Amino acid sequence: MEGFSSCPGQTLKLLIGIYLYADLWRVSSTCLQHCCVQFPGGGGTGMLPAGTLTSALPFPCSDVPLELSDTSLLSSVAETRQLMDAAYNIKKNLQNNALTPAELLSYFKQPVGGTREAVQAADYLQTTLSLLKEKLRWAVRGDFNVTDLLTPAQVEVIFKATVCDQQDKKINCASSGYRTITGECNNRRNPSLGASNRALARWLPAEYEDGVSVPRGWTEGRCFSGFLLPLVRQASNKIVRFPLEQLWMDQQRSLMFMWWGQSIDHDLDFSPESPSVAGQTVTPAVCAPSPPCPQPRIPPNEPRITNRRDCLPFFRSAAACQRGRAVQEQINALTSFLDGREAAMAQRLWDRNSQKGLLAVNHNFTDRGREYMPFGPMRKEPCLKASGAARIPCFLARGRSSPSPRLACMHTLFLQEHNCLVGKLRSLNPHWNDERLYQEAQKVLGAMIQIITYRDYLSLLLGCRFHRLIPRCRGYNESMDSRISNVFALAFRSAHASVPPTVGHLDEYYRPITPEIQLRTSFFAVWRIIQEGGIDPYLRSLMADQLWDRLFEEVERIGFDLAALNMQRGCSDIQLLAGYNSWRKFCGLSQPSGARKFLKIYGTPKSIDIWIGALAEPFVKGGRVGPPMACLIGTQFRNIRDGDRFWWQNPGVFTPCQCCSLAKISLSRIICDNTHITKVSRNIFQANRLPPWLCELQSDPKAGPQTVEVKEHGGARYDL
């Protein structure tokens, strides 16, 4: 590089200033190609290879501005806001007679409240960085991370201008014996750890096509490990799909087992979809890779979809605000702690007007005297459309409850249990105020959910691996990373393969109520609960199937292939998870031997999607998942427990006597106390052939009296 030493040393930020003002100036290409540059954080002086810079200004290098001004950066942020703000009106497109699968998915996954603000800030940040990168792309050869070309001060300017600094501000933790609704200050050394609206943890490095944000398979014809990635619909058709007559019921577990897992998943992770689609709010039927929506395409010879221009509706999950390099990380809108509440909804469901610590209830309808959840706003939404002339909207607990009657029943059950606990606490401690009553009831309710999950549910899910993966509790570990991992958010979706094709409901004598409800017609059908007997028939039954190809189905068009969407989430979503083999290695498992079916589709085991690969494995002994799933799920639940300062077994959370009483609770008892059901299963998660347990009994004969002592001015007792 002749003449290199003659050019004055310039920092790389000087070059950025040149590129961003390329429309105003041109500079000598000879000078630029022979300039010595300092890479920020690079540990020394480096050279840009000849030919990487292609344009020039008609004045010497010494005349070029040495710094990229804050004004220029702020201008890029302003440009980003103009491009994106219109995309945040997606609900306005929910027309009364045009609820397509894409629109329903968007409604179901839209962020609200503080989560919406966090998602919007992250969208501003990511789009601003992408805009800057595009302005530099003509001048820098190959893939690069734009944050590597900015000084820390410049990154901070962008971080503040996009309001991401508000998502990462310093947290001052007050002394309190209760959880915060947002999960902040659970870990006093790192107050944001496990809090809502923060990034999911990543246990293995992301696999982006460009190392930053472009999904694998985005570039058509590009190979990975020597093979093209298969279409996710193709993999779903060949591996997941099988005839309905081959469906079989698990003879050891009730369907309550599966729906409890779904409820727990809704307590731990929610990755909303980003509403920011440049210039449009709903992805069109024509499948074009329009960021941030890599649409799952329809493969050739598809048996049921004839329109080759069609695609499966899909939106990428929203990113979180992250300082440092521009690699995208996915946001978790919920806390990582098993506490039985969602931050955004907990604030809205707390009935502050009552001043009694109660959760808000429905004032339009009751379940023969028992409360329903309150309704959300009366506006255009799927539940109103599903109810027809009845005009019954979704419950306030958002789309995560309303899509399924059974999930709505579970949420209703625990709303009633909270208010029942408040009533008992208030009668024993009439001097307690609204805050104290609410917090104490939530504390007990959270402990109940933790006990049922770890004692009853996980032991049946993980089988013989349970005690090895989740050993006996040894107390709070401040160094434990309690955050939910992105691979867990995908792995815990294994229940999606366990849902049958109908939604059964049983009368008080446990006889089927006819006709059965087809699963595909049950979504967002809150009206069925209100007008067809309340929550009891669904809790008696909890028998369903068929979630493979009918989710949010629109007649005469594509149903949602949830298996395909789960794989798309893993390989081309923001998560960009490592492949199946990498996760087996992470878990200390050997490489699989019998993978012929997969190799015909993927070509190499390195590209097998974790969700489909792990789902296809034989179950561990006594469990309902294979070894990789057991490892990932067990590791996550151990982290959740050990990293939770308010875990029910930790010293100081409850007294020893209270812990002994709490250990006797059961989901069967909760159902008895909060419904009109008089007979329940003895072991609620297992298929029972024994006579049912009668609710008239004071307690489960195996558990003994279920009481908790609440010490306040000498102590008090109340029945659970």
UniProtKB/TrEMBL annotation:
Residues reported in the UniProt entry to bind heme b: H496
Q: Which UniProt keywords apply?
A: Heme, Iron, Metal-binding
UniProt GO MF annotations:
heme binding; metal ion binding; peroxidase activity
| One GO term of the biological process aspect | response to oxidative stress
Q: Which domain of life is it from?
A: Eukaryota
Query: Where in the sequence is the signal peptide annotated?
Result: none
A Pfam family matched in the record: An_peroxidase
A single GO cellular-component term from the record reads: extracellular space
Protein's UniProt name: Eosinophil peroxidase
Organism expressing this protein natively: Serinus canaria
By which gene is this protein encoded?
A: EPX
